[in-house]
Amino acid sequence: MTSTPERPPFGRGLPGNRWDLLEGMRPDPLPTVSVIVVHYRQQAELDRTLAALARQTYPADLLEIVVVDDGSPTPPVVPDGVTLVVQEDDGFRVAAARNLGIRSSTGAIVCFLDADTSPSPSYVAEATRLPALAPEAVVTGRRRHADFAGLPVEAPVDEAGPAHELPEPQWLVDAYDRSHNLLDADDRSYRHLLGAVITCSRWFLSQCGGFDESFRDYGGEDWEWSHRAWLAGAVFAFVPSAEAWHDGPEWAARADGNGAADADARDEEARRRARKNAETLRLADAVPVAGSRGRAVRSRSVDVEIRLHGSPTAAAAFVTVDSLLAVLPMARVVVPAEVAPVFRCDERVTGPEAGDARTPPRVRLDVLVPLRVDSEGASPALLAVVGAEGANGVGVGMLGSVEYVVAGAVALRITSSRAAIRERRWGPGLFETSQRSAPWLTLLDPEPPLAAYLGGWG
């Protein structure tokens, strides 16, 4: 992710997640589009997907198709006009394959598809509309499921799909319904983007980075990228009219259905659960929001960062940091260099020289004056603001920052990284700032009575 967000070379910035403000608008002129198809040992499925791409309503002279083979024993055969690139067979490397596809393509808008996911004729036109108008838009299409076994690869998927349809994952259908097609996206909505049907601008990929190539097993790389994209200022949208058909049932429905009495079925279920657990552990380390990270075990990535400003005394810095960590024990704290030695035994607390992580914290707390936090009074209010979900949370909807006022001055400011990045790109006005009173905050004297604080009598 770039340290200094760049203003996009085209399009407009949207307030909050308001992609609905572009309803009815179409890009003019149409941008060039690269469709990146990842393949591994699925020639028939790839043939169906490439046939579907040949029937797109999007102008063919603006459409580039790149197939990336993840080291199949025999490279796939592709028709004239389709670019084929191959990477070494070194495990399940869909993340690396997508990055290779990005480097091997040129379109202003990038569509990612899997070889077994065939788009309906209007897919490219529908999936690219928002990213062409708002370069921070990240679109997930509707991945439907069908049994194409025995059908000719030339059969139009918009006809064969409905005729041989399989159930969609209900949890995903419900999520899109609750969020109004991700219009009401929040900090946990990364779970509702599917790598097989994601579209975004090439400019935005340059801002948030490509896929994490340390993911070398099935699953998880799309959610890690989606979470990172959200922090980089993405506008999430589910576009149901961008419809693609996956050949076969969803992953959760592919297990042998013979029941627990069948030993082979039990073994298969154990293997599937182990794969899912491995994915979940990998994401717990990379996506540190509540509901993904451990409840007490810390992640490699940081969700909340606290920064002390000014030059507090050692005692004032100690009370400030200690009382905040009592409420937010998973946070990282950055303190001025002169008081950093006070916290040398707590790895959560660092000096200002600590380097920035690849993934920024989701929210940042700027402590502008030394203060003490009453944990009982603060927990409901503070956790509601820094929590990962909720209509009033920072970074959700239109709210970009919350300022807590004590004695007529702002003492604590909580800011969404997503909001801050986007306003550095486009200028102020895309998010709102709320000022609130904070009876659970107490301003500290330069030398607070530290023994009384620790002993509990003052």
From TrEMBL:
Residues 34-144 form the Glycosyltransferase 2-like domain. Keywords: Glycosyltransferase, Transferase. Gene3D superfamilies: Spore Coat Polysaccharide Biosynthesis Protein SpsA, Chain A. Residues 268-277 have a biased composition (Basic and acidic residues). Residues 251-277 are annotated as: Disordered. It comes from the Bacteria. Pathway: Cell wall biogenesis; cell wall polysaccharide biosynthesis. InterPro entries: Galactosyl_T_C, Glyco_trans_2-like, Nucleotide-diphossugar_trans. Residues 252-262 have a biased composition (Low complexity). Residues 189-240 form the Galactosyltransferase C-terminal domain. SUPFAM superfamilies: Nucleotide-diphospho-sugar transferases. Pfam families: Glyco_transf_7C (PF02709), Glycos_transf_2 (PF00535). Belongs to the glycosyltransferase 2 family. This is GT2 family glycosyltransferase. It comes from Frondihabitans cladoniiphilus.
